[in-house]
Please model this.
Amino acid sequence: MNKKVRVRFAPSPTGGLHLGGVRTVLYNYLFAKKQGGDFVLRIEDTDQSRYVPGAEQYIYDCLEWCGLVPDESPKHGGPFAPYRQSERKEIYRSYAEQLVSKGYAYYAFDTPEELEQMRNVYKTEANPSPQYDHSLRMKMRNSLSLPAEEVKKLLDENVRHVVRIKMPENEPVSFVDMIRGEVNFDTNIVDDKVLLKADGMPTYHLAVVIDDYLMKITHAFRGEEWLPSAPVHILLWKYFGWENDMPQWAHLPLILGPQGKLSKRDAAKYGFPIFAMNWTDPQSGELTEGFKERGFLPQAFINFLALLGWNDGSEQEIFSLEELIEKFSIERVHSGGAKFDYEKAKWFNHQWIKRFEAGRLKFEVKKTLAQKRIDISDEQKLEKVIALVKDRCTLLTDFYDQGWFFFKTPGEIDAEAVKPKWNEAKKRFFESLKEELQATSQWESAFIEDGFKKLAMIQGIKPGELQLPLRIMLVGGKFGPPVFDIAELLGKEETLRRIENGLAIFG
RNA sequence: GGCCCGUUCGUCUAAGGGCUAGGACACCACCCUUUCACGGUGGUGAUACGGGUUCGAAUCCCGUACGGGCUACCA
Model:
């Protein structure tokens, strides 16, 4: 009997979607799709104090850009709605109470101040962060330590309280991680985690177990930072009596920055993006640039993320999403963290730009140019420009630097590159070139080059010495594709105009 | 401090007991190119350390070191 594969991702709408998050989605998605299963997106807004308006929509936007569209989500709907945890409050409460009545959890009435005090009192050098656990719980104010009638009174009076799991003493917990193999813990080292907060919202620990169960999740992938709390989740599955339905776990390695874990500071310090798309914090107004806006193609973004911690064992590096789905295997995911290398990320983008036909890039390039106030009316010309310059573009934004002069007459001209070697003979050459081009009816790169070289020979000047001045006249500087290709694309009229301009400047 | 996870060129990684440890990014040189790139050829460069097990260890085991994560009414 094969259960249909269902994997889930549970982002919290607290800000930008970073590389680690996208990669987790990607691996979830690849794993599910490979087996014809479902990719479920659940919104983890269990902490309303951290909820950022707009962040949920932003997550959908990022996933859509990446091409990783969920089968079920608050936005897309599905058979297990609602998928937003704030809309499932009642469910969590009743399950938490079930746990209390079974004796696996208890009510705790300690105030934040009392918890703070506990931590200060029991803090020692050997134990810098004392935990609310089996050794201390009887010294705190909860339904285990307090007389039953007092507990009842407190509950009747609606005194603020939480539900905590009662972690057993000295009980080994082990599970098999799909990436790491068997992982063992001792329950002594984990504290009595809060399951239901005083505001009635669940913590991640409770929500993840209940929702994975109710939504029939078969595989749960998440970041390595969750490994230490895995025993809490394993125990909850057991306490609810759902052990046979527990998903298989995979804890993905972290993505690291140049010095330790990848952070927004790294992004600022080293000048590379860490979010999929631009994220503006609605509170501070602070903008963090995304890969999309930096000029990445989603195919390249997905490609390099997939390879950051996984490979198919061959030497292939360029994969489409379809190929990734076909070749992905969780067994080949690394257990060690991977440092993010922006240079390599750019290389992937370059590869994708090169492999795409000009027509396929047209839409994106047009947008990029529009941002630099170059509006395209002639789409055919744009396509030709793209075909001509794309091999030298790493980011989509490079199309501006490589191609703006096809659409705009250069204002500033790098005259210094020409003037020192400028003379009467060269002036005469360009004047006669102008006349010859004027007269020609054939306007094609090879033909122009041929005429140019013949004329140079007649006048006794090396063509090489004349190419740079021509280039400067046409584009304004020492850059761009082969100069006669530029002339062809520019058209006869514009080429002649720019040669005239150049002659006026060089004298 | 405690617990957990990890460790192959600078970076991402291949090699799951057996050739001179392979590839990619980056870097360097040469070629191509009378611009800048692309491209081509070649080069520098790694099994953290110490013990075992074995005819044989990057690979299995133990210890050490280093790195990372967790240790919240955050996820």
Observations:
- The longest strand of chain A covers residues 172-177.
- The mean pLDDT of chain A is 94.
- The longest helix of chain A spans residues 19-34.
